[in-house]
């Protein structure tokens, strides 16, 4: 089949901005996007720059934007993409500086990974539980990493991350998922786990995630980074780490539902800002607008039907958690 591929090109030596260039190729029905790009480079335009290595969805080198979604070129079918979208548009990963054509600078990505200390901390008493090779041998009955260890560091989740798009300081889905992997490791000392979580409580940490789910959708290895971030949030709340606005939003929401059986939108902002006078002044105009828009529930309203059942759900959840 003969298809047209539109590739985003950029050569910093001669281009002021990126531009699209089209190539027409005769391709076999089983061809991948990476196959097509390699043919273009070898047979049509040798100046095309791209990364690839294993061609087996193992190394993650060929991650790129294909028809607006972050995918691995080596496992993306040309035929299926064309049938689904009616076109083949290929561009470098979003949210990364472009070096040339489809090659992006991964240094910011690796900097985030290094920032979360991606290795086990040494146990002070390694022979007590696991023998002399404690840092090398993982007890199989306790190994539950939720598939986070399947990450191939391709960067697709960061390319799709809506928070990273507007805040480059955000650690990103891949780095935060890596923290969850070590938090689930029984060989990691408890004080080290607490320390890992503590550094994630401020700006650009776990509470900045908006749970858009895009990182889960594009991950080629089904790592589910957003679910890892949710587990980190739960672990932070369980350890009663210093309260942040994000943590107060979660706990305040639950408290209001248990108390009233529904969300009180007038009190919720107060739960989030806590006891900070400056922030209270900032939300005061919001409270006035909510009052004028009818968003403030009447203090004389009675209890909603089924409130006892709602509270019973919370009590049951606490008993189940305490039994673990």
3D architecture notes:
The chain has 324 residues and is α+β, with helices and mostly antiparallel strands. The protein has 3 domains: 2-103, Roll (Ubiquitin-like (UB roll)), CATH 3.10.20.30; 106-126 and 137-238, Orthogonal Bundle (Fumarate Reductase Iron-sulfur Protein, Chain B, domain 2), CATH 1.10.1060.10; 245-323, no CATH class. The chain has 13 helices and 7 strands. The strands form 2 sheets. The protein has a 5-stranded mixed sheet. The protein has a two-stranded antiparallel ribbon with strand order 6-7. Strand 3 and strand 4 form a beta hairpin. Helix 3 runs parallel beside helix 6 (173-183), helix 6 packs across helix 9 (225-238) and helix 10 (245-260) packs across helix 13. The protein is globular. The N and C termini lie far apart (58 Å). The model has no long low-confidence stretch (mean pLDDT 89).
